[in-house]
Specification:
Elements: E1 7-10, H1 19-46, E2 59-64, E3 68-72, E4 75-80, E5 82-86, H2 111-123, H3 130-138, H4 147-165, E6 174-182, E7 194-202, E8 207-215, H5 220-232, E9 241-244, H6 250-257, E10 262-265, H7 267-275, H8 283-294, H9 299-313, H10 318-325, H11 328-331, H12 342-345, H13 349-355, H14 370-386, H15 398-403, E11 407-408, E12 411-412
Parallel strand pairs: 6-9, 9-10
Antiparallel strand pairs: 1-4, 2-5, 3-4, 6-7, 7-8, 11-12
Length: about 425
Amino acid sequence: MAKSTPVITIKPESTAKDALAEILRSGAQRMLAAALEAEVEDYVAEFAEARDQAGHRLVVRNGHCRSRELQTGIGSIEVSQPRVNDKRVDEQGNRIRFTSKILPPYLRRTRSMEELIPWLYLKGVSTGGFSEALAALVGSDAPGLSASTVVRLKRAWEGDFQEWSHRDLSEKRYVYLWVDGIHFNIRLEEHRQCILVVMGATADGTKELVAVQDGYRESEQSWKEVLLDLKARGLTVDPKLAVGDGALGFWKALPQVWPSTRSQRCWVHKMANILNYLPKGEQPRAKEALQQIWMAATRKAAIAAFKLFIKTYEAKFPKAAACLSKDKDELLTFYDFPADHWRHLRTTNPIESTFATVRLRTKRTKGSGSRVACLSMVFKLAQTAERKWRKLNGHELLADVIRGVEFKDGTKSAA
């Protein structure tokens, strides 16, 4: 029986300027066809020995499925994937069916397109302007992305966000937390002026998005509401450490909810605050002196560098020295945790890098129900980024942290 090939056609563009896009889509066509072909071949080969009483194979190829259009970041591709006839049944007597992991059923747009739509919304593109914006970005042949389609997607994402925001957390245990108040120029109500974000590291070192909620500036009350909600939904065990900017009302709320959680100030925020009190000519040298503190191998060396900075700058620039000295203990907490974790614990970079593509890029527009819509869009973008987060370095040491093993200068203390 001759081997058939997945039928994938690409709609031609009308102008020469799209020649590069055609080349890219042609390459995508070949890659997708080869991937689908290999996936089906592997599946059929895996069950080649499965036969019925007459000796006929139970798993065979059977032509192609009905073609469908797939919206991608480089235009529309029409796909007809191979069909598999699987006559096997499971223990309950239900028919087993082949499902492609590359091209799941009913998929109509790639993940990059799913990311693009919420980004455009946060960018300030109105629902009615989506078709024009998407046509400019992915080609004029982008059907199915009309205003009504976007409205349906937004409603679905709002539902996802609401469900996620009320999920049960009783099976979760977060060893570390990163917190920050992210300011966007998006459609928040006047008294809810920022988005409060919480990320966490589980016992196996996996980073997860824990909470996304709007709040009044970064106030103690707003943070307390977020933390109490998390605790009410099952986070009853105090995290070992929380990392955040020193200006947050979070630090007043934290001991009211999780009293044993220790505090670590973000060095990136702290350095920026200190340098703001210095003239530009002094900043490079001061920055290097600050790095000598948090990059020191031991707490003793860090304290020595700390004292040297204060002595160097307190006479001429007392505000810079005071900004550093007021959070001395909280800036050096990381020395009591594994050295492998220090790069993760000294800053709120996990949150900063995630929201860098959205922060300050948005337009403010007002409308009924816009608060939930914008929170949902921010949630979807953060959820997309979450898939790319790496585990903590030295995550196997988290078990020691949970057990309360003491670390001195990042090294496990002798028993």
